[in-house]
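Quarterly update from the structural biology core.
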Amino acid sequence: MLSGEVSMTAKIVDREQRREEIAKAAMGLFSVKGFETTSISQVARAAGIGKGTVYEYFSSKDELIATSILLWCESIIEGAMSKIREIKDPEQKLRTFVLLSVEPLIADEHSIKTSVFIFQLILSKLDNQVFFNTLQQAFSNMGDIIVDIIMEGRQQGIFHITDEKEAEMLAINLMAFLDGILLHHMIIGEKFDLISQVEHYMKYLLEVNLQVMMREEKQK
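Predicted structure, tokenized:
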């Protein structure tokens, strides 16, 4: 590789890294102070840069918050993926991936505040195309992983579904449940154990929709 190409690659990496740093600094402020009351100047100070520099990386405040949420979602998914790569059993892999995708949302007070903030923002900005497109990407990434795990189980004869279309429907159903139970937990508070509820639903999904019990019966 020529020195000019190396320099250009380094610049691209540095730009992406700086963009992520700004987005993470923004999320830290947005989740505490709120989206409307947090200014670009405050984000710039938190990131250790000038206000004008923020606009070199993001065209608007909406693009900034959309990117912040996408990176937040990706960090959770990547964290879960890193821990399931060595799991061979699709049933265990699916259970683990889902639980590891939920646990970071309620890990501590800051995580809960961030989750609540994002849910509130989602409900208030569904008519914003930039925000909506980013949100779709985040959900699509998670859905693709779930579909891949289900199809892996089908290929091994563990999950009993007809085709990939059914796997996609089950992934949508699962993510819709997670959205609903997370929102309910935020409203109700600590009156029920979120993880236990997710585990209960996963048991139903695996035994009824994916018919994992058929494998267990064959092994008896």
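The domain at 1-58 is CATH 1.10.10.60 (Arc Repressor Mutant, subunit A).
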